[in-house]
Each structure stands twice: as C-alpha cells, then as structure tokens.
C-alpha cells in the first residue's frame, strides 16, 4: 500500500530518518510535513532546517502554536530553551536527528519507495526547466503526473516535491539543480529515478565546480548513481558530456541534431514569433512537430523531453501532441507584444554563457531588416574566476549582434560593456545601468515603434522588474 499522509505514524517516520523520539506518542498520525512555520497546517510535522542565513529552530515554537503535531530538530540545536516552550504542549512529538537536511532527504527517499510512480530526473546547465515542463505536458495526457513547482529543484525543494507523491500518481518529473559536487549524486539517491536526463554541459556554477570538466563530472553523477535498471538520455551533440558519462555503463538514449543520435530533429523551420516546425526522427520513423514557443533552443529541449517519454514507452502520437500543447514558461524566452508593435523578449529567469549564446541566436529569427534592437543584460552569477572573461565575451557576442542600444547591470556590467566596445560597438550605444530604474530609463529613451527589446540575466538580477516597467510603456514617451 502506498504511504498516505494522515495515516503515516511517527514510528514510521522515525525509522525512515534514523531519529530519536524524545517526547510524544509513536502512534501519532501525521497530516504532512512542512519546513515553514508560517504556512504549516494542523497535524503536520515541522522540520527545522538550518541554513547560512536562517535557522528553523528559531521558529519551532511558532510551528507548534500553529498546530504542528510534531517537530524534527537537529541534535546540536535541541536545548533546554527550546524544550521549555514545547513542554507546554504535552502531546507534541519531538524527534532529534543528526542532520535535519539529511533527514528530509531520507524521508523523501523512503516515501518515494512506498509509491509505484515512475520517476524522471532532469538536470543540465540550461534547458532543464523547459524540458521538465515539456515532458510533464506530454505525460499529463494519459497519466497523473507530479512535477517540481517553480525552482524547487535543490536538496530542499526536490524532497518536498517527492513528499507530495500520492497513490494516484503514476509519473513524477523532477528537475535537479546544483552548484557544487555531490548534490546531483544525493538528489539521485533520494529520487531513485527510472529515467535520468542530462540536457547539456555548459559554463555555469564554475564558482563551486572549477571548470567545464568539473561541471560535466557533477552532472554525470546522475548517470553514476542511477540504478542498474535505470535508463539514461543524454545530449548526443555534447562531446564532453558523452565522454564523461562513458565511464559508467548504463543504457543510454541520445538526442540532438546530429545524425548519429537516437532521437533527432530534421527539416527545422524557424517561424519566428509563431514557433518552430521540425521533423522528429526515431528509429525508421518520422513525425512532424509544431512548437508554439519561439526559440531554436526549444528544439533541443523538445528532443530531450521526447527521449524521456520514449524511455517510458509513451507513444510517438502522445509525444507529438504534448509538444504541440506546450505553451512556454514565464521568463524563459517569452515573446510579448507591447503597444506600438514593440516586441519584448523576456528571458529574465536565468542566464549563463551557454544559454545567452543560444538565446541571441533565437532572437535573430525575430528580427526583420531595419528593426531597431535594444538589449539589456544582467550579470551571470556563480562563474568564479571565469566571471570577468565570461562577461567580456558576453559583451562581444552582443556587439556581433549589432544592437542599436546595449545596457548592462550588475557587478560585471562594465566587463560586458568593455567587451562590446572592444568588439566594435560604438561607446555611445553601450551603457552601464546602476539600477533597474536606470536600465528602464535607458531602454525607454531608445524605444521606437516596431523595435525589439531583449532582456536576460541571472535570477538574482531580478530583471523582471524592468519587464514590468516596460509593460506600461508606450510609443510616444519622451516626445518620440
């Protein structure tokens, strides 16, 4: 029988997390689990996580006051002061563990084993969220499918997602993120996926991984740790990925544009704002696919999603239908129309050198001769010692695009501007913005009817603030 919240007891949780019960009854039933005392519901288990900037143990008493049936705390953080307040609530269960983050993962891993759902794990330097959403759209046509919400793809978010598995689910599609060695290995251990997918290896998270080879080794932890029965789908156009993964003997399906891949795209037609047409080739068959979302990078994402579903024995008809239904994601190359026939390409959710290169290539298909182009970039985070060089290269790529105006924001904004000017962009057209409002003003001053605006930056740069400001913009501002 699948595990069900409301029926699971403290005794079962204790066994899963290797904890010690210091108060409360082992037969107490738990309604769910929460790591946030602000949103905890009556009867749930409050698990206190300790981070660099916060400590959930400071909110244990609040969690109990709001109805928590039990708490899970770290041994070193459990003291008389905590216990003093909790002692007023005699029936509350208190469990101590060596590490609450590990306990959360262990509980999620145990919960996953109690359910028969087939689990997919997706990682990669770029495209993993879109691939996840495409795969989920396909699988939802004939299955009850669970997926990560938003960016809940780390050592906290993924376990919390898995703990939402219900007996009705028969598929789960999970995105895995990381920024240091060992994280993908641990996430794979927790999720125990039936299918593992790596979209690509690119220049991202170098701060914690050192170099491109370090990124590849970290991503390939998924291949290493997936069970012997698990299937693997890899980007066959990524030579470093294939080379790094080859040391582990697993059943592999490759996808990509190259003719040697198992799942391929041929006859690609870029329709600009209307999307992309291509033929999906697999074995000896060919199936026409229409993507409603613009951007050539979505062809690779679609092939990755198709590979996932083929590994799960989904029909090609379902795959083609699902890909055609996918409507895109907020902040990921979303093409918006502004007053005055202005096109705004909102790619503000995240950025790294690889995804920036792919996005700029896709922008080209949206531009007609004579279109005025305005580009706003935010800093690309977590690049470590490679940051200065990577941002200057980003500026050079922008200059090759020959925009009419280029604005950059963030600690490495000057490096981007310097790279653009070095590559031949007139200095008067390349400007550093100190704030979101300043970038918004630069762009508004340059806007003309029929122009194209492209915005991209790492999540922490919050360029969606500029997007929101532009939504209310109109042609004719500042007398133009």
Keywords:
480 residues; alpha/beta; Udp-n-acetylmuramoylalanyl-d-glutamate--2,6- Diaminopimelate Ligase, Chain: A, domain 1; UDP-N-acetylmuramoyl-L-alanine:D-glutamate ligase; Protein-Tyrosine Phosphatase, Chain A; 3 domains; nine-stranded mixed β-sheet; six-stranded mixed β-sheet; 21% strand; globular; disordered C terminus
Mind explaining what this structure looks like?
The structure is a single chain. This protein has 480 residues and is an alpha/beta fold. It folds into three domains: 10-104, MurE/MurF, N-terminal domain (Udp-n-acetylmuramoylalanyl-d-glutamate--2,6- Diaminopimelate Ligase, Chain: A, domain 1, 3-Layer(aba) Sandwich); 115-325, UDP-N-acetylmuramoyl-L-alanine:D-glutamate ligase, CATH 3.40.1190.10; 334-479, Protein-Tyrosine Phosphatase, Chain A. Helix content is 35%, strand content 21%. It has helices at residues 10-17, 60-65, 80-86, 100-113, 128-139, 157-162, 183-191, 206-209, 212-219, 221-225, 239-245, 297-311, 316-325, 353-364, 387-401, 413-422, 436-446, 464-471, and strands spanning 20-23, 32-34, 44-47, 70-74, 93-97, 118-123, 145-147, 171-175, 195-198, 231-235, 251-256, 263-270, 276-282, 285-291, 334-338, 342-347, 373-378, 405-409, 430-433, 452-456. The strands form three sheets. Strands 7-8-6-9-10-11-12-13-14 form a nine-stranded mixed beta sheet, sandwiched between helices. It has a six-stranded mixed beta sheet with strand order 15-16-20-17-18-19, sandwiched between helices. Strand 12 and strand 13 form a beta hairpin. The chain starts with 9 loop residues before the first helix and ends in a 9-residue tail after the last helix.
């Amino acid at each position: 029988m699948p595990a069900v919240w409301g029926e699971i007891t403290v005794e079962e949780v204790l066994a899963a997390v290797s904890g010690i019960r210091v108060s409360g009854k082992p037969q107490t039933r738990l309604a769910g689990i929460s790591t946030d005392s602000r949103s905890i519901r009556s009867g749930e288990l409050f698990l206190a996580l300790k981070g660099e900037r916060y400590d959930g143990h400071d909110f244990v008493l609040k969690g109990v006051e709001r109805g928590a049936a039990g708490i899970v705390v770290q041994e070193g953080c459990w003291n008389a002061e905590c216990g003093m307040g909790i002692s007023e609530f005699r029936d509350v269960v208190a469990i101590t563990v060596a590490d609450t983050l590990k306990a959360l993962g262990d509980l999620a891993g145990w919960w996953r084993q109690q359910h028969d759902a087939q689990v997919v794990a997706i990682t990669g330097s770029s495209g993993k969220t879109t691939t996840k959403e495409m795969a989920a759209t396909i699988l939802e046509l004939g299955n009850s499918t669970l997926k990560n919400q938003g960016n809940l793809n780390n050592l906290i978010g993924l376990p919390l997602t898995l703990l939402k598995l219900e007996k009705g689910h028969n598929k789960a599609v999970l995105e895995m993120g990381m920024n240091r060695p060992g994280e993908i290995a641990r996430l794979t251990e927790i999720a125990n996926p039936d299918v593992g997918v790596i979209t690509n290896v690119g220049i991202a998270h170098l701060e914690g991984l050192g170099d491109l080879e370090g990124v590849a080794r970290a991503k390939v932890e998924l291949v290493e740790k997936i069970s012997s029965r698990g299937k693997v789908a890899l980007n066959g156009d990524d030579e470093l990925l294939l080379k790094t993964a080859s040391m582990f003997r697993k059943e592999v399906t490759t996808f990509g544009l190259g003719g040697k891949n198992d799942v391929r795209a041929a006859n690609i037609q870029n329709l600009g704002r209307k999307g992309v047409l291509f033929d999906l080739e697999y074995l000896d068959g060919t199936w026409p696919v229409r993507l409603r979302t613009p951007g050539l990078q979505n062809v690779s994402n679609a092939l990755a999603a198709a590979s996932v579903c083929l590994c799960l024995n989904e029909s090609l008809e379902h795959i083609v239908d699902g890909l055609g239904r996918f409507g895109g994601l907020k902040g990921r190359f979303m093409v918006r129309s502004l007053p005055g026939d202005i096109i705004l390409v909102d790619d503000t959710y995240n950025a790294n050198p690889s995804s920036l290169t792919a996005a700029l290539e896709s922008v080209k298909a949206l531009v007609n001769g004579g279109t005025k182009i305005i580009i706003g970039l935010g800093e690309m985070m977590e690049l470590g010692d490679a940051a200065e060089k990577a941002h200057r290269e980003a500026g050079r790529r922008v200059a090759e695009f020959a925009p009419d105006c280029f604005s950059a924001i963030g600690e490495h904004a000057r490096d981007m501007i310097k790279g653009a000017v070095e590559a031949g962009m007139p200095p008067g057209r390349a400007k550093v913005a100190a704030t979101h409002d300043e970038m918004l003003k630069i762009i508004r001053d340059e806007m003309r009817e029929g122009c194209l605006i492209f915005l991209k930056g790492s999540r922490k740069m919050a360029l969606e603030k500029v997007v929101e400001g532009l939504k209310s913009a109109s042609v004719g501002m500042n007398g133009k």
